[in-house]
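Continuing the series of single-chain predictions for the mutant panel. This is the parent chain; the variants come on the following pages.
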Amino acid sequence: MAALGAALVARAPALGQRNFRRYFFGQVCSVLGTFIQAVAMSWLVYRLTGSAALLGLAAFLSQAPQLLVSPLAGVVVDRFDRRRILIGLQCLFALQALLLAGLVFFDLVQVWHLLALSALLGILNSFDLPSRQSLLLYLVDDRATLANAVAINAAVTHGGRFVGPPIAGLLLAALPESACFLINALSYLGPILAVRAIRADIPRQYALRTGRALVEVVDFIKQQASARAALAAVALINATASSYVVLMPIFAKEIFAGDSRTLGWLLGMGGAGALTASLYLSTRPRAEQVAGALPPGCLLAGCGMLGFAAAGLVDAFWLALPTVWMIGAGVGASNVAGNTRLQYLVPDRLRGRIVAIFASSRFGFDALGGLLAGTLAAHFSVLPVVFGQGLLLVGGCLWLLPRLRQRD
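Parent structure:
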């Protein structure tokens, strides 16, 4: 076991550092519950309404606030204690999950409840991701291991995306959605205990003013061509490829004539692809190798979307699984690479704000893409929507390619 631990630390040096290791185990506890709830929520919305548009709207509300709130949240993160912010957020996340569980268990749930609680989740997420990602630098003793910490953190998230949906599918086949929401509420105990145990000197900017703080971020992005290209690529791939999650209940139920277990397997394959990509990047010895995965990640996801649409056209579930894996791997690699580029470009005094802009590009455009995809699928058909998004992603990636190769 000691030799295995030493080999693991040699490949993933961030795990050899005390503060990051505690944070890692806390994340493992929480992420599984998060994806179980996400699948249960999408299945509940579709079961109650049968509407692709409402599926897209619920996903939109759970992420759209990050378009507007995340930049302001970045100012809060740079000004106040990140640990206290995170602990408070985990308590609010647990309360949101408990409200969902209670509404479903007592058969009181209505569609407007789900939309309102999805919007609350989006507001909380606007503060959560900047707080987490900007904390990573202070959890590692050696700045050179920051890229490894970013990739491992993504691997935990994608691991939950791989394991969580199949588990959710099995739970939903036997239990009401309230069981999934209750599991998620209990899972937040892990990160609360982990963050309380972190011992690190984390700087704060007590006199930071909101207006000036946002102007500094805009000036930084204007001066950094690499930062602009990375943010554009992250926005593009999440506005297109990430929307497959919103459309997946339609594929599971209507295209492949399946049930909640079919949904779990499809989403699980996407999570497996993202997990594979993030694990691979976590073993790369140089940050440049991680950051360089952005263009191939976008192309891989675009090709996967084209293949997924073709699999649906010929009703080939066996072909859909590897193409969903490609989409997940491309999205996962692109987000890790984009985050890594920004983390190494940004000065420490802007870290919370720049990570918040990344979160806005990552999840805000994911929300816009999901809403648009759900609306188009309701009026036309899901297959041409996915095919068109794949073409847009491939074309946009080729246009951004020379800009992504620039170095500041």
